[in-house]
């Protein structure tokens, strides 16, 4: 009896240490400009599913490029990282699967709203990084008056930050062999803090006679 209790205690401690290690590695990644998930897994009986959505909220650009990378336990990329562009109201489905999966593959699912990260059939696990494709994701991109290209003025169309942390993320690890699974956690920047004056620029909010405003970089929020 005591042996069984000791074994249970050992397994509990070992599993806790394993999860702490994975989470620690995930939190070591800069979360100000990226969204991270501390755990995903794949093997012959499981895969990982992620959905990314553009909620069309104020401050979001109408086109936000995002790159999804699945890092394994050694810190190397599982399969090939995938990039796509999110538009208002769009949901992109991402499947992390072994190349041998018979139903979840690019041949079976050809919808443009589906993306695959495919790799080895061996048991693999690690963390997810979602980052902006834009070189300055925290800047507010201004639209330009089609009648006057000499200077930008903010007229409210297609404007906002191209920040991947402003997108919504959810997902789950699916254990097909047991018809079960568990939800994933996504951690993003919740500060929405304004940056320094570096990178600020002047723009006007209308045509002739309009007031000039100063637009500065700002970090976004994870709207999961």
Entry summary:
The chain is mainly β and 224 residues long. Helix content is 12%, strand content 35%.
Offer a few descriptive terms:
mainly beta, 12% helix, globular
Characterization of this structure:
The chain has one helix and 13 strands. The protein has a five-stranded mixed sheet, with no helix packed on it. Strands 1-7-3-4 form a four-stranded antiparallel sheet, covered by helices on one side. It has one domain. It is globular. 12% of the residues lie in helices and 35% in strands.
Q: Which spans have pLDDT < 50 for at least 5 consecutive residues?
A: 10-20, 189-199, 204-209, 216-224
Total individual domains: 1
The major sheet is characterized as: 5 strands, mixed
- Written as H for each helix and E for each strand, in order along the chain, the element string is HEEEEEEEEEEEEE
Category from helices, strands and their pairing:
mainly beta
State the helical fraction: 10-25%
Task: Tell how many strands the DSSP assignment holds.
Answer: 13
Terminal residue distance: 45 Å
Average pLDDT figure = 76
In percent, how much strand structure appears in the residues?
A: 25-35%
How would you sum up the global shape? globular
* Rg estimate, integer Å: 21 Å
Question: Which strand order do you get reading across the main beta sheet?
Answer: 6-5-2-10-11
Q: Count the DSSP helices.
A: 1
Fold topology:
Elements: H1 2-27, E1 34-42, E2 46-53, E3 64-72, E4 82-86, E5 91-98, E6 114-119, E7 124-132, E8 140-141, E9 160-161, E10 168-175, E11 180-183, E12 201-204, E13 212-215
Parallel strand pairs: 5-6
Antiparallel strand pairs: 1-7, 2-5, 2-10, 3-4, 3-7, 8-9, 10-11, 12-13
């Amino acid at each position: 009896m005591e042996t069984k209790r000791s074994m249970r205690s050992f397994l509990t401690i070992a599993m806790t240490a394993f999860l702490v290690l994975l989470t620690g590695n995930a939190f070591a990644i800069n979360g100000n400009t990226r969204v991270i998930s501390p755990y995903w897994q794949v093997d012959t009986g499981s895969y990982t599913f992620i959905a990314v959505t553009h909620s069309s909220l104020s401050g979001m650009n109408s086109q936000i490029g995002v790159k999804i990378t699945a890092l394994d336990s050694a810190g190397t990329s599982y399969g090939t990282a995938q990039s796509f562009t999110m538009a208002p109201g769009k949901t992109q489905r991402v499947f992390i699967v072994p190349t041998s999966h018979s139903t979840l593959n690019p041949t079976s699912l050809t919808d443009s709203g589906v993306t695959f990260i495919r790799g080895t059939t061996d048991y693999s696990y690690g963390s997810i990084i979602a980052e902006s494709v834009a070189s300055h994701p925290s800047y507010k991109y201004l639209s330009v008056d089609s009648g006057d290209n000499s200077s930008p003025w903010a007229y409210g169309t297609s404007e906002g930050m191209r920040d991947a942390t402003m997108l919504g993320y959810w997902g789950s690890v699916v254990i097909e062999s047991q018809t079960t699974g568990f939800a994933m956690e996504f951690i993003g920047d919740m500060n929405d803090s304004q940056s320094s004056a570096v990178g600020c620029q002047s723009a006007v909010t209308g045509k002739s006679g309009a007031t000039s405003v100063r637009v500065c970089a700002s970090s976004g929020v994870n709207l999961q």
